[in-house]
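re: the backbone from monday

yeah here it is again, tokenized this time
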């Protein structure tokens, strides 16, 4: 049985949908603007989950990044997409992450990886909680490794060595609204 084709929502710069395209076809040297999200997970000890993207990823393979990202499907809310991707990428049970809060509603970026692939997204940024980190079971095709760091330590490390991290995370962490939500 074939799995359904995952679609991403193409959009204008204000996030207005303009159509859809298969996810497998859009990340090229001419990637169209599309909807996405980034999510940062904090555990009950105030530590931030950082993940290293799998070498199997089409874009930015092997680079450290925020907890997880994804693309809401047509008609899917960001909150539903966040829960879905937490299961697909991090192997969590549905509903394991809680207190999902919007930190950067209007964040968007365009970045080009070493292979020339462009990522161009309207990408609201969220902070959520995972009270039981033992539930984490990342999928190998998504996450190569992960670590939990105190938020302040993670931010200092990312600012000191931005080349080790995804460009979207480096850009996101320049926003006080996000860093304040992470340190609550």
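seq for it, each position gets an aa:
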């Amino acid at each position: 049985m074939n799995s359904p084709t995952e679609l991403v929502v193409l959009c204008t710069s204000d996030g207005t949908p303009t159509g859809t395209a298969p996810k497998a076809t859009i990340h090229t040297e001419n990637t169209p603007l599309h909807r996405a999200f980034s999510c940062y997970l904090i555990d009950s000890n105030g530590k931030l989950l950082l993940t290293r993207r799998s070498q199997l990823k089409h874009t930015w393979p092997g680079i450290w990044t925020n907890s997880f990202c994804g693309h809401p499907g047509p008609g899917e809310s960001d909150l539903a997409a966040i829960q879905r991707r937490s299961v697909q990428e991090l192997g969590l049970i549905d509903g394991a992450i809680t207190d999902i809060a919007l930190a950067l509603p209007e964040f968007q970026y365009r970045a080009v990886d070493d292979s020339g692939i462009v990522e161009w997204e309207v990408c609201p940024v969220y902070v959520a909680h995972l009270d039981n980190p033992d539930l984490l079971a990342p999928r190998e095709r998504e996450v190569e490794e992960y670590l939990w760091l105190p938020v302040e330590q993670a931010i200092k490390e990312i600012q000191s060595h931005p080349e080790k991290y995804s460009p979207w995370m480096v850009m996101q962490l320049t926003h006080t609204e996000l860093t304040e939500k992470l340190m609550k």
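The helical segments are 23-26, 78-90, 151-160, 167-172, 176-182. The CA atoms of residues 104 and 175 lie 8 Å apart.
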